[in-house]
Amino acid sequence: MRGISSSNWASRPALSSRAREHIRLGDSVDILASAMNFCAETVGRLSFGNAYTRIAHYFPELLNLLLPLVGRSYSLDAPWQRKHVLKMSEKFQESIKDISQILSQGPFEPGTLVTHLRDLGRVPIFDRALFLLGTNLAGHAVPAGPIAWTIFFVETNPNIKDRLIDELSNKIDRSTYLVACLREAIRLMPPTWLLARDVADLSATKLAIPESIACVYVSSYAIGHSAALFDRPEVFDPLRYLSNECSHSFAFGAGPRACPGQALSMFEAKEYLACLYREYH
Hints:
The protein is mainly alpha-helical. It is built from eleven helices and two strands.
């Protein structure tokens, strides 16, 4: 989300408060569902600002409904997707009307995605609404997986869990060990396991790719599990991220085509995990 400012909706106190709301659901919690709802609300408020309250009662459910349609592309640009969207339920059509109305009438608060999209007057409102939904789909689905996998790996490694709780108990601010646990979970189970890239001018590199090849695929999963790059690659070891071992990370892409929401995703995940292990361990 380049160009979107970190408003009060994405401040650490606001995120921590929402994390508590989504975790404190009872004795038994579906962590993945809880994390997805938390991330949906966070990115929704960052996108819509105060106008989010108009759609909050159905927005997380709407994103979950659309997720199977978009897969890992997190966009609604393909013709077949647009055709399918137009045939979706009456409830969905009503939500598109709500979002379109917000895009056309505001409120337009500084730093929100709605405000940035306001200036695209030549782009039809419907297209802007689909873009907004695609952005929110990525912002709620991408961080939720790493949150759930981090919890899984930490809970199945008691020594790691004890150290994480100890660090969070003694440090009010961010825990470097928590970040290491999160990054290690992403290495093992990246949110997007395969990335496609168009082949451009490679004359300045050492790569030799035949001219007939127009697209290459890079597997962040294969990179993260490579014994040539990592010692004991199948072992969950956050300490590798506290040393100089981990210089090979491609889970969010790299360079100018890297995921623009990477910082927000990591921010959401860290706040949720910190709240969970600081207060509910």
